[in-house]
Amino acid sequence: MLMTAESWRKKTSSIFADRKNPLITDIDILLGEYHTPNKTDLQKLKLLILIRRYCSDWLSEKGDKKRSFRREYIAELRDQTEALLRGPVMQAAIQQRQQGGSRAMAGKQMQENVAETLQPRANAKQKFGLQATLPMNRVSAGFLEQKIEDYNGSHADQVDPHDLIATLDFAGSQNQKGKIVRNLEYLQKADRLKCQLQLWPDGRFHRGGHDIPHASPGGKELYAIDDMEYIYTSAQPAKAGTFHHSSFLSGKPVLCAGEITVAAGHVVHIDNLSGHYLPNTSYLLSAVEVLMRKYHVNLGQVTIMDMAQQGVEWRNAGEFLRLRGSPPIRIAANRRR
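User: That's the sequence. What structure does it adopt?
Assistant: Structure tokens below.
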């Protein structure tokens, strides 16, 4: 059980100490949110992670806090959050967050790295009216994994990358020390809609409601397809550590991701070049099927490159779909890296 906000305030209040420390008053707010009726397990999961982050930050500070009467209660609250996070209910919520999407698409989506999606968001401060100045930049999974690997190669107290709590603690501590400065962007609904490709009555794709048919800037752009089969493309090139394929859907699973080319409102190229999700041939097939079935794209006018098969290039998407991604010998000989 997690102590109530009332119990927390009682334990951490004293006539000899004020309650002006923003870490303490922010925990007041977060505990109140956690115990609000009708909170889902997933919402509670995110609040537990945030509360634990605040407790850990307070406990890590030196000076007068070492002798503070609040220390034992903050440590108690931190331990309670950790016990809940490791318990069956929150473990099920973690699995739910990782799977995401609709039940109908179960098994057809690529899962995101849960350590990325469960990092506290910077906008949590604004959402709950928090005041403490904790840096909470979201770190991309690949960048975080590399940081842990580098750390483990030079420190005796190694971090277990398979332990979610340890990984989140590592991300928080590195962030606090200013060693992780990249903030991975996760699009909110309004920004995501600006990236959505829509098929208009003129038979062309328009992006974000613009009157002019869409054309990919620079020839190619990132794309991701969600479980509702909506297509999103980037207005900017990929930026290492700041904008990835996971940015479109805020880390939720996708049907496919890669690069796409749209010319004068028509899709003319699609592939599965995503270093983040690493989609295989079956995911690229799903993307092509969506283009044909939902958007009535002329597959004969779309070139294909399958990065899961060392960059096999196809004559067109129609042939790719007909052969279910298994290239004949004449195409396989045309491979290039």
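Residues 41-60 form the longest helix (20 residues).
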